[in-house]
Every structure is written in structure tokens, then in C-alpha cells.
Write a structure and sequence with these properties.
Rossmann fold; 23% strand; alpha/beta; 262 residues; disordered N terminus; globular; eight-stranded mixed β-sheet
Amino acid sequence: MSYSKITGSTDSTIRTGTEGLRQGQVDIPVQDGVMSAYYAAPATLQNPPLILVIQEIFGLHEHIQDICRRFAHEGYMAVALELYQRQGDASQYTDIAELIRDIVANVSDEQVLSDLDASVQWAREQGADTSRLGVTGFCWGGRLTWMYAAHNPECKAAVAWYGKLATGHSPLQKEHPVDIAGRLHAPVLGLYGEQDASIPMEDVRRMEAALQQGSEAAKASRIEVYPESGHAFYADYRPSFNAADAQDAWQKATAWFGRLLG
């Protein structure tokens, strides 16, 4: 299936307004230069908690920006980086296999984790309360949500949406969520679809078992499986969208962050 077909807008596409928000495109300093990003935050709320939003495999497109606005309306500063910037422009691709080969396979976890750390520093300078730090991600970003929750001791909460658990998209990825489950610093809520052909339920059960053998944060994590949904059930711009499960998962995600970030 082509990228253009996958990202085509549908009648169910949600477009969240900007009223009451400060938001827009920004450049964030990173280790080797600057990186494009999108942020949204309540216009009048001082020192909001911070949620890092990690893109799908398709890059920092409108759906991810809209999710930032959704979190901003919930009272958070939300920041999403264009994490492929060094490797290329995902929006120029019409074939997923080519996108993975040319760009995604060349993005290391170490690069992404460093860039996410830099975005936390930037958000701190913009007034976010980074002592209340959360992270969430979708698809490619769902996997990295687990990885970041094990990387940054400052992270307090995470929500991973249908991210791979035992595999990845790149030979540069040396570990996967099932390998680092025991080292989590923050409790993670995993949101998965039972009909997801790319993430077998066997991997989900392995992850659940690994969490129970891990840190306090690992044991406090949990995975929610939606029996009728497949991959990308929250992606309202795609045919995979399941409105009922998406709404339920969003409520669970915001409750998770509300409880752990205050």
C-alpha cells in the first residue's frame, strides 16, 4: 500500500482548533544543530506539564500536530520533533518500503533519544514543568515511547500506541521494548489492537511477562488490547480508524497522564 493512500484524509479526520493555545512550528537546538518541531500549549497556563509526542513512521505530519493540540487543550505543553530531518523528507515518499529503506532504517535509537532529551531542555526554557514529564508515540513512535521511558529517569508517565515490542524497522536498533521492560523509569500504558498483523499477540504476552519481572515502574505498567481493532486504530485520517476504541483509548491515555503527572 502506498504512503499517499495511507495518509489520505477521510471523513473521520479530526481537526482540533487553536483557540486558547499558543502553538506553531519552531526550531529546537539539538546536539549537532537545530531540528524542526511543532508545539502546542495552553495560552494562559503557567508551567504546564510536558508531553513529548513521537511521530508515526510517516514523520511529523498534520495528524501528529493535531494530537499535540489535543493534549494542549487538556492542559499540557506538547512537543513533536521531525525526527527524520537528518535522513530525509518522509512526505516525499509514496511507497512504504522505500520510505523504510531510505529513511527509517537509517535512524538510530540513540539519535532519537538524544533529540528527545534536547526537546525537554527546550520546553523547560519555554516554561514547561519538566518535573512532570510524559511521553507518547504512535506506531514507529509507540516503540520509541517504551525506549524513552527506560532512557530518561525524569520521565514520569508514558503511553505507547501500537508500537512494535520485539522487532523494529532498522538494523541500527540494538534493543527493543521487550528487552528493556525491566529497566523502565516510568509506568507505561500500552494500547494495542488484537487484529494488528504487525504486532502478534505473542509479543504482547511476552511484554506483559517481562514487565512483571521488572522495576516498580515496569510492574505498574499495563497493556490494553482492543479485540476488534488493528494497527493504527487511533489514526482518524486512515481507514484503520476505529472511532469507539480510539475514544476509549484517548480517555485511558489522558487519565493515565492525569494521575501520574498531576
